[in-house]
Amino acid sequence: MVRLILLLFFAPLLLCGASQVEISAEHFFANEKKGENILRGNVVVKRDKDLLHASKLVVLTNKKRKATRYTASGNTRFEIMLKDKLYKGSGDELIYDVAKDTYEINGNAVVEEPATNKKVSGDKIIIDRKQEVYSVFSDDEKPAKFVFELDEK
């Protein structure tokens, strides 16, 4: 039932964008004056081949009810396609900025490319889809890591 309500609520957003976003959750609250939509409980977001799971999702919208920012928290994990490559990851919080087309993973951030066994981890990872740039940040006590396999010849 919540899925149907969400699709009806976000229908104007879907008509404006090039790709469709489907969000399902156990609970949904919307404040149209603030442009804030809060979803809780087994949240699943699907967009093209991208997939996000979280306990809570806050979707901020502009006056035209078009999504500008997604903030996921609680057991956050995702799968995204970049340049026809699948990346999986997780973190304490994931922020997607629609205008910049960037993902920011905060706290226990991990991103891996299953096909090549490459893996990065740190306190914060930023993925800029437009620029195809990946940045990993960490604090002094816990270094950023990049793990990959070497081909032996």
Instruction: Kindly report the average pLDDT value.
Output: 82
**Would you list the SSEs in sequence order as H and E?**
HEEEEEEEEEE
The 3D shape can be described as globular
Q: Give the structural class.
A: mainly beta
The tally of helices reads 1
Task: Characterize the structure shown.
With 153 residues, the protein is mainly β. The protein contains 1 helix and 10 strands.
How are the SSEs placed, and which strands pair?
Layout: H1 2-16, E1 21-24, E2 27-31, E3 36-47, E4 50-61, E5 67-82, E6 85-97, E7 102-113, E8 118-128, E9 133-137, E10 145-147
Antiparallel strand pairs: 1-3, 2-3, 3-4, 4-5, 5-6, 6-7, 7-8, 8-9, 8-10
Question: What can be said about this structure in brief?
Answer:
The chain has one helix and ten strands.
Q: Descriptors for this entry?
A:
disordered N terminus; about 150 residues; 1 helix; mainly beta; ten-stranded antiparallel beta sheet
